[in-house]
Amino acid sequence: MSTDDRIVIKNLVKGFHTRHGFTTVIDGMDLTIADGEFVALVGPSGCGKSTVLNMLSGLDTDFTGTAEIRSRAPGVHFSYVFQEPRLLPWKTVRQNVEFALKATGVDRSQWADRVLPVLRRVGLAGFENHYPHQISGGMQQRTALARAFVLDAPVMLMDEPFSGLDEFTARSLRQLLLELRSQEESKAFVFVTHNVFEAAVLSDRVVLMSNRPSTIRRVVEVEVPLPRSYDDPRLFDVSRELTHEIISSMVSTDDGGLVVGEEHARLAGPQAAR
Ligand SMILES: Nc1ncnc2c1ncn2[C@@H]1O[C@H](COP(=O)(O)OP(=O)(O)OP(=O)(O)O)[C@@H](O)[C@H]1O
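Above: the input record for the complex with adenosine-5'-triphosphate. Below: its predicted structure, written as tokens.
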């Protein structure tokens, strides 16, 4: 850990009370992220990726250990982008982005100077006065990106932001995110995804999480300099390495399926775990 770390996760243990009792979901996680870094969290469904974002954002405070975004200046410490754009349907594109400024106490006199440039950056110039139902899903997610970037927060938390989009739209938004990132070199990103190629294209580091109770299984550095071309063969190599690592953590079941090793051990009992 260094004083430059923007995000600090240390000895993190998290569980939930359910009707079956207390279930540990994350059992000891350590990760630090510095300003300017882009880190993807990849792992099996239910391993706790969204829960990590919830703890970092302060939405969930019921855990032991550390999960914090360190602030060095007053103002908003993070922005959040979700899988669904979560726009207000009765507000226009411009008003949806303005709403983030209003909600965080930015004076109305600054709104136009901040909102119009960010709408241009995400490719929505000319659509300022459209309502969400008048634009495509991809454009709605561009609006969500604009709403997040307009806040100028040092940290961006992103929870599968492109997984609800068709592949061509998702690809153009990944490209957009790479561009936005290159314009803001000090922002730290935590990006949850199931898509290993997406993780490879966007990230500096990919954190592979094991299944519940989860820990960090491996951290893969993506040593491909920015700006990146989508078709760079080195990204395919990283993607293959990630896929191999995930597959190797899975075991075959009797019916020909594949499950994550830890899950198999849990289902099959102590014999299978050996
Ligand atoms: N409020 C809650 N009460 C009980 N269990 C919960 C609660 N929230 C999450 N969980 C459980 O914690 C585990 C982790 O959930 P989380 O949504 O963080 O996983 P995830 O890795 O993001 O999954 P996915 O990839 O499917 O989105 C899951 O098993 C989930 O059912």
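Notes for the reader.
The chain has a mean pLDDT of 90.
Residues 16, 18, 25, 43, 45-51 surround adenosine-5'-triphosphate (CB under 6 Å).
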